[in-house]
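Q: What does the assembly look like in three dimensions?
Context provided by user:
Components: two
Sequences:
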Amino acid sequence: MGDPLRFRDDQAPEESAVSLDAFLGQSNASTVRIEAGDDVRLLLPEIDRVQLVEIDFPRFRDGRGFSSARILREAGYKGEIRATGDVLVDLVFFMRRCGFDSFEPDVPLNPADVEAALNRYPEVYQDATDGRVPIWAKRHPHEQHG
Amino acid sequence: MYKYDQYDRAMVDARVEEFRDQTRRRIAGHLTDDQFKPLRLKNGLYLQLHAYMLRVAIPYGTLNSAQMHKLADISRRYDRGYGHFTTRQNIQYNWIKLEEAPDILAELATVEMHAIQTSGESVRNVSADQYAGAAADEIIDPRPWAEVIRQITTFMPEFSYLPRKFKIAVIASVEDRAALRWHDFAIRIVRNPNPENGAGEIGFECYAGGGMGRTPFIACKIRDFLPAGQIFSYLQAVLRVWNRHARRDNIHKQRMKILVHDLGEEEFRRQVEEEFQHFLTLGQDVPQAEYDRIAACFAPPPFETGLADEIDRSDPDFALWVDRQTVTHKAPGYAIVNISLKPIGGIPGDISAEQMDIVADLAAKYSFDEVRATHVQNLVLPHVRKQDLHAVWQALTGAGLADVNLDLVTDIIACPGLDYCSLANARSIPVAQKIAERFADIGKQQDIGELKVKISGCINACGHHHAAHIGILGVDRKGTENYQLLLGGSGAEDTSPARITGPGFDEAGVVDAVERAIERYRELREPGERFLDTYRRVGLDSFKEAIYG
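A: Here is the predicted structure of the complete assembly.
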């Protein structure tokens, strides 16, 4: 596997990820791996020492990881969130909206396809965690939003 | 009706181009069929037994005449000159070529239509009361809130791959014409009943966890009153609880109904409320101003006042049709017209291109340009002046659309079944046709009265057999088609699941069994009782005795 596709300017953490259980049991780890069935909220009390969260997609049809990423961002986590596993290019747009900012799938993504997918939709209908202004807010610029 | 602005247009246009690109990649061999499948499904394109099938969304069942003409045009140019209205108020085309599917989506976009999320593991097209805006018993028109929900659930990033499909229905009356509690999530618009706190304010009674399929569940009420403006937060809470905690190991156990059942109503509600309180803090709800903008699109049409309510009933055939097919309208001098798509011997829900054009013309001339599709696979002209009913009836008669059978034994719901569907175990259409032929006589039908017959060709229950007064489920038994009979279900406000009577029948046998059940009802009924009332009073055993001897 090559380098992850990153949407961050900082240096990628080098430390290899440990499982959520292992992370919670040892105080010096800073990279954690969240499996699809893990409760990511268990991580929140320790979130200050996390630099990188890898969220695994065992099959592209398993969408639990979208909620995991968004929960982290809603809790104020600013570190890296990386999608791993069965990540298809057609999902990257939605993953970015949920707070993923790096990608290291089993099958590497073609950067040109990613670029096209990210630029496909000019607008969004609802808030997520990416700060994009939803259509309803553009229709009513004087309404309070967020 | 809702009118797209530049944002809505941009989104639908982008979707067409995205799908054009995906289809190109598939045809060029850059995507395998496995990779392409979830992409096409999110655009309503299925691969059926003989060809691709395209399911087009009709949000909350509302169409204008230009859209109906376009549906006719598409059926002529890209299909075989007909379409099929479904139990989700959508329309399906059965003979689609993959390479033409992007062009069809582009055609639909010209009349503000699409096929977004009509399939796949996503929030599906929102369904609603087909009499919205016309019903005498509604609190408000439910469609503006349905449109708010359509927009906020379009391309929801967190819920890109839900455990399964997710179906929402919205009504605003006590009478339930939308099979509310058979949905994953359902809303009945009500006024706040709490005199202490905001009495009279519009909000939602919320239900969750309904569904048919192999394990039928009726949705439970999870909230008595949700302030309407908090719907995005609440819906996200429901979806997040399900998305995180549903099983992912067995496709037959992933619908939300299973989670609600496994957790129990109380625990599910507790988790949703906890998540809801969290979402409220994010401040992402749609403001009143946006609701007002959308609601303005659904302002009542300029109904004339001072119209006569009398109808000239001197033609007995016309009087028969008026009595059965029209319903009280909220505006004096107007009626709601139901157009039957259930001719005796026909295919339930099917309509030809010529008929679509005629319905569109009638809508333009007599119904403020509006048509509705119903979950019972019929059409509605919602706002017809009573003085125009005769002209409408004559035009419908000429088009073969004036059948008289609303809510009667021949007004049958049937899924496409093994004639089209790759999931089916048995044919549905011939069974529907044989039952309709057996009870073709209108005098007999009227004597039997309200009787809802619903037929599914497999356990997925697209034909709503669980919600039928008399339901039929086609199964495969050792390689032959076999039909189970069910009794006592309801999709109305008195919702109940139907129960299986006993051993199944072959095709001819199940038609006979239906007749025996109906005969038993006629023997046992008390004055004013419908089939369902008699069944509920006397119980299944009495009917079993008649059916099995």
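Follow-up: The first strand of chain B starts at residue 45 and ends at 47.
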